Each structure stands twice: as C-alpha cells, then as structure tokens.
Amino acid sequence: MSGRNQATPLPPSSTGPFRWPPWYRALKRFERPDPWVATWQVANTLIPYLALWALMIRSVQGGYSYVVTLLLAVPTAGLLVRLFILFHDCAHDSFFGSKAANTVLGYVCGALAFTPLEDWRFTHLKHHGTYANLDARGVGDITTLTLEEYRSAPRAARLRYRLYRNPLILFGVGPLFHFLVRQRWPSRAVSRRARRSVWITNALIAGIAAAAAATIGLRTYLLIQVPVLWLAGVGGVWLFYVQHQFEGVYWARRRDWNPLRAAFDGSSFYDLPPVLRWFSGNIGYHFIHHLRPRIPNYRLKACYEAVPELRSKKPLTLRDSLRTPRLKLWDEEHQRLVGFPPLLDDLGA
Asked: What mean pLDDT is predicted for residues 230-243?
C-alpha cells in the first residue's frame, strides 16, 4: 500500500473556502448516545475485568506458576484497553448523554488505566485540532520529524530521535513509563481543573493500591497490576501509532491543511479481526472518529456501513500494519513517510 488514497471523496472544488461535502451531514445522526448500549458496554467490560483480576489473585496466592498469572494478564489487558476506549468516549462527552455520567465513568476508568480525565482530555482535544498539521505538531501525538528537520538537527538530537522511535522504546519501555510516571504530572499550560484531575486520579490510584496492600498484599497487587498495565499500554500505544503512522498518510503545512483530507487520509481505517475490534472498541474506524469525534464507539461500525462514501477509504490490514514501525520521518518533497538514513551517517562515519 503506497501513495495517497485516491478514493478520498474530496469536496467538489479545491478553490475558495472549504466546505464539507453533502454526505458529511449524514454522520451527525450517529452522534446520539444510547444509554442502554453504553451501560451494557460498561457491564460486559468491567465485570470480566474484575473477574479476571480475582482469578489472577487466586493464581498468585494459590502458589500456581506465575506463567498462569501472565497468561491471564493477556485478556485482562485487552479489557483494560477496552476500558480506555470507554474513557476516551467519556473525554469526548459522547459515551453517555449526561455530562455528569461521562465524568464519573471517566474518572473510574481513568483510575484503572492510570490516566487523568481532564488533563488527558486537554491534550487529546489538542490532538484533534492539530493532527496531520506539520506546523502544529507535538501535543497528544507521536513525535514525528520531517526528513529535512532530522538532517539539519545536531548529531545528538538525531540519535535521541532514533532512540525514541526504536520499537523497543516506543512500544516496549515507553508505555510503562508513560502510564506509571509521565501521567502522574500535569501537562504544560493546562487549566486548574485539568491539574486537579491529575491529583484526584493519583489519589484514586494510591487508594486502590493501599486497599490492595491491606487485603491481598502489595506483592500480589504489583505482580498483577504491572504486567496488565504494561500489556495494555503496549496495545494502546500501538493502536495510537497506526492511527496516524502508515503508508499513504496525509500531512500538510497549515496553509494547505484540509480537514477532510486530514480525517480521511491522515487517519487510518484499521481493519481488525472481530475479536480485536471488540477489545479495541471499534477504534479502528479512526478516520470516522476524526470526522465526527462525538460519535460513540458503539455507533462507528453502523455509521461506516450506512454512508457509502466512507467505504471508499482503503483499509489498513493487520499484516500491513506490521510494516509501519519502519516509517520514521516525513519527506515533504515526496509527501510520504520514510525510514531513517543509514546510521553511519549520524555517527559521522
């Protein structure tokens, strides 16, 4: 899969002020939350998550091999990813019709996923306003340099960027650092409310850890929480990565930035198998999410099937996605993501 997606239904004219195409209005009807579906999603995610936690506690305290605990951690982590998608919808106030209900569930899921609701909402909404814009990178996204920026950077900066984009760091150590350490502190330039959400979430996490230490023991808690959080973090970072880092992706300077192109070509349609689609809460329909962020996860698939123009989007298959980590830099001249130059060039050899 290479080059731009030629099937993108662009506006009828590329001149004059931007206007959304007529079919865009059809998406709005899918924004209405369904309290019964939302409640069922909470039940069918949170209850199995807690049940698997109970099984892992039994496996640790019953003297079973730790391999059993780690095997149970895999589906538990998958459910934590799904809880994060519910949290994500709450941050957009799209999961329930009630803002209060979204806030309460957002804080609960945020505490389980080690993510503060209001602080994360700030950076995520910033991402929605700046994704695919080369002049507004750096908030709520995967750091991406242009090829020219990389070539003109000092040698030490190039090596740091190589280290950051190394899969062992980006998908290995990085997720655990991000969720355990980075998100314990407020982001820059956030509101007092967002800062307060960080301290409230930290207090909730500390309360859960203290309650666990008093009941099942701190060792048992850590033997379960750390691998579950790490596996979920790896899955979450991977999903976020492939949403905007793939062959054929669209980036543009602010003067040329087109919101329809940004949503359609700057975001992927990650065509996952049904089981993975369930665990990831339909987030694979990410281009639709960027077209209409208020559509809850449980309506994305129906939206895709109801609007013919959406089906012109070329999917990113699971096999194709495994090749995306080799994409490191944006080549402005050729309008595509490319890999790193030879390492010897950075070492000065």
From this structure: 97
